[in-house]
Design goal:
By secondary structure, this protein is mainly alpha-helical. It contains 28 helices and 7 strands. It binds 2-acetamido-2-deoxy-beta-D-glucopyranose (11 copies) and zinc ion.
Length: 650
């Protein structure tokens, strides 16, 4: 009995957030409060209970705020799980439910819409997969017209494969332009000739193949030769070697390769001699092509097939290399990568469409507040920048774009009908996978050469993710510097991060901080160089001449820093969000704790990845830099969350 009492007392005292003083107005700055509906108290109170569940309120927030706010996270969720990963998994689950339901209901109206039927057929072919039969991929490839290495390479290029020999790629150049880029292959990548790839090759060549050991050896020799060739003769490899050529000039420089023919075969069009390309390291290309033209054509071909298979297996979420988990969610994850736009269309139509109008009003509203707050701050010119540079940075603020769900802006149904027109889907997974790659890369090539302004406007209003995009890049909101655009994935626009019904402290606590962080990436130590059109400028050269700026960077750049630009975006984004939200003292006093706790949710359970430090380090560092945090939690000076020395950036 006494123990039970203790437990109850503990629970009672764990209610760290008195809700009676919270600001429950539905919007902080509603344009017209009379038309604003009241926010659901129920949603807000339930969410606050959720926050309390993750807290360890008996700890001292001034010592380690992460522990205070997220200390109980791991006793609720498994290792590796963060709020963002839970959110992403929920989206996968909705696709599974939708597809399963539609397969059971052939009369459902969705079957009449673009994309749905093809996606369902694709999904079925994926679910029906047995054990991997990689030669099925090779069987689907068109036959090259000759055994010349460049023929097969161009055919593989149609599927977005271009990792060896001569690399011809369509890549984004600025906010409104893709370009053809020609480079020597990336000599860091190599083939690991596994048994499963070897067997596929053997069947494909009807057994006319050296044994595995021998073939590995011959491939190894080929790679060693290629590596030497591609290695720059000069050690000054940092030098920018990418240069502008017309197709005609390139043909003159490198006559041993028929560029017109290769482009036609890979990209499906005849390019005029005046077409502009970017070409890297012409001397290395010359040497490489001369060698390949002399080398054993059969060996080059075998190597190409093997590399292609390895590439397909290594694409994110290929269900063939992932046979352990539930096939339904693996298939959905695979489809979200491979069929990005069709999958988004379906999610928009079946789920997100209903909430879009309300979200756009709220989220774009907060985005505009942040932009105007940041513009004001820039105009105060604390660093004392020259007027032209200041104007250029202000133009960046105004040019920043935001896309919710990463859909083309205002696209008609006809747009999606046209888009799906040449996309072929049948009953076989291998064929479907290759056809979907063809479809994506053919679109990209078409975009590069399209002169149709309305087509271009649509395709550059979002970021058309390719099948090779790795997960940690697109699983959370991000800033894309070439497009000068912030992408908010569907996984973000739901609880626990956001709800249209949120009270201001909850709404700004995450949304304004997330938007602020992504906005400030446009001004961080790496991406500040790109202008609002995604064109590289010399802004950081100019900034580094400014002592105040250099001091601010040096303050951030301590021995603990993991990625300097992430830290910069963290602290300046947090500061911007705070300034936008917490202007009145009453707001700070009554809602501050809730605001910071909501901010913490994004970081609970976040582990480090290639770009980011752990959630715990990020949260504590950013908030320790904010005097408002120390004020709200009444932290004594010198405590970890209220350091004597602080850094500021923007
Ligand atoms: C809530 O905040 C808004 C804006 O700061 C303010 O106008 C309003 O009076 C506040 N309401 C309450 C109940 O504190
Ligand atoms: C984008 O790149 C293309 C190709 O280099 C160029 O013609 C265009 O002017 C660039 N756009 C801007 C806004 O600079
Ligand atoms: C190859 O690897 C080296 C060292 O890891 C790296 O510096 C270089 O940028 C890489 N080259 C390419 C083309 O990825
Ligand atoms: C090569 O592939 C095999 C089997 O897939 C794997 O066990 C091995 O670790 C790989 N080796 C390298 C260097 O990637
Ligand atoms: C592979 O072939 C080579 C040459 O024919 C031979 O010496 C070697 O024993 C064979 N290895 C295996 C594992 O069969
Ligand atoms: C090395 O670079 C220098 C200057 O960029 C150039 O003049 C020289 O020809 C290069 N050497 C080779 C072997 O490419
Ligand atoms: C390539 O040339 C075009 C036109 O001459 C120019 O607008 C563009 O900036 C150049 N791009 C690069 C990367 O040099
Ligand atoms: C290059 O290929 C094109 C298209 O296939 C062909 O018309 C042209 O004659 C070829 N040029 C040379 C020099 O072989
Ligand atoms: C989409 O349409 C809305 C309403 O018609 C308009 O306000 C908005 O500017 C359009 N967006 C784009 C990117 O064209
Ligand atoms: C641009 O493309 C759209 C959609 O395909 C088409 O309706 C329109 O006629 C095209 N405009 C021009 C000028 O070709
Ligand atoms: C950050 O510090 C490291 C080590 O002191 C230094 O190499 C690097 O250049 C600094 N970065 C910037 C952007 O100042
Ligand atoms: Zn970031």
């Amino acid at each position: 009995m006494p123990r039970l009492w203790a437990l109850c007392l503990l629970l009672a005292s764990a209610k760290a957030l008195p809700t009676n003083q919270l600001n429950k107005s539905c919007r902080l700055r509603a344009a017209d409060t009379s038309t604003e509906p009241t926010c659901s108290t129920d949603i807000n109170l339930r969410h606050i209970q959720l926050l309390e569940q993750y807290m360890l309120p008996e700890l001292d927030a001034c010592q380690d705020f992460y522990k205070y706010a997220c200390g109980n996270w791991r006793s609720v969720h498994e290792a590796g799980v963060s709020a963002m990963s839970l959110s992403g998994a929920r989206i996968d689950q909705r696709y599974v439910e939708l597809f399963e339901r539609l397969l059971d209901e052939p009369q459902a109206p969705e079957h009449e819409l673009p994309m749905y039927t093809k996606l369902l057929r694709y999904y079925q072919s994926c679910r029906a997969l047995g054990k991997p039969r990689l030669r099925r991929y090779l069987e689907q490839l068109p036959h090259p017209a000759s055994n010349h290495w460049a023929e097969l390479l161009a055919l593989l290029g149609r599927y977005g494969y271009h990792e060896h020999y001569v690399k011809i790629e369509v890549s984004q150049h600025n906010a409104t332009q893709h370009m053809l880029v020609v480079q020597p292959h990336n000599y860091n990548l190599s083939l690991n000739l596994s048994m499963i790839i070897y067997k596929a090759l053997r069947r494909h060549t009807h057994g006319l193949l050296p044994n595995l050991t021998q073939l590995r050896e011959r491939f190894g020799q080929l790679e060693a030769t290629l590596q030497q060739m591609a290695r720059p003769a000069n050690s000054s490899s940092e030098e920018e070697t990418l240069r502008n050529y017309t197709l005609e000039q390139l043909q003159q420089e490198l006559p041993q390769f028929n560029w017109t023919h290769a482009l036609q075969l890979q990209l499906g069009a005849t390019y005029p001699g005046s077409h502009q390309l970017l070409v890297d390291d012409v001397p290395a290309l010359r040497q490489l092509i001369a060698f390949l033209n002399r080398a054993d054509a059969r060996l080059l071909q075998l190597y190409s097939w093997a590399r292609f298979l390895q590439h397909l297996m290594q694409l994110p979420h290929n269900p063939l290399s992932n046979s352990h988990s539930s096939s339904r969610s693996i298939c959905v994850q695979h489809m979200r990568k491979t069929l990005y736009l069709p999958m988004n269309f379906v999610y928009e139509h079946s789920y997100y469409g209903r909430q879009r109008a309300a979200d756009e009003r709220i989220i774009f509203g907060v985005f505009e507040e942040l932009k105007s707050q940041f513009a004001q701050q820039l105009r105060r010119n604390e660093f004392g920048l020259d007027a032209p540079l200041l104007q250029a940075l202000l133009a960046k603020v105004h040019g920043l774009r935001l896309n919710l769900g990463n859909m083309p802006a205002n696209a008609s149904t006809q747009f999606y009908v046209d888009c799906a027109h040449h996309w072929r889907v049948g009953g076989d997974f291998y064929e479907n996978h290759l056809q979907s790659l063809l479809h994506y890369y053919a679109h990209l090539a078409e975009l590069e050469r399209s002169a149709n302004a309305s087509v271009r406007q649509l395709w550059y209003s979002f970021n058309h993710h390719g099948p090779g995009l790795t997960d940690n890049i697109d699983a959370t909101p991000y800033f894309y510097c070439l497009g000068s655009i912030i992408i908010m994935p569907y996984a973000y626009m739901q609880l626990p991060f956001y709800d249209a019904q949120f009270w201001p402290a909850l709404l700004y606590g995450d949304l304004a901080n997330t938007l602020g962080h992504e906005m400030l990436h446009a001004f961080d130590t790496y991406f500040v160089d790109y202008d609002a059109q995604g064109v590289m400028r010399d802004y950081s050269d100019q900034l580094l001449l400014n002592d105040h700026y250099v001091d601010a960077v040096n303050c951030l750049n301590d021995s603990e820093v993991f990625m300097l630009n992430e830290r910069a975006a963290d602290i300046s984004g947090t500061r911007l969000a705070l300034q936008t939200y917490m202007q009145q003292p009453a707001e700070r006093r009554n809602n501050g704790r809730l605001y910071f706790l909501q901010f913490a949710q994004f970081f609970c359970g976040e582990e480090a990845d290639i770009f980011h430090d752990t959630g715990s380090k990020r949260l504590n560092y950013a908030l320790a830099q904010m005097p408002e945090f120390a004020e709200v939690f009444q932290c004594v000076q010198g405590s970890p969350m209220n350091p004597v020395q602080r850094c500021r950036f923007w």
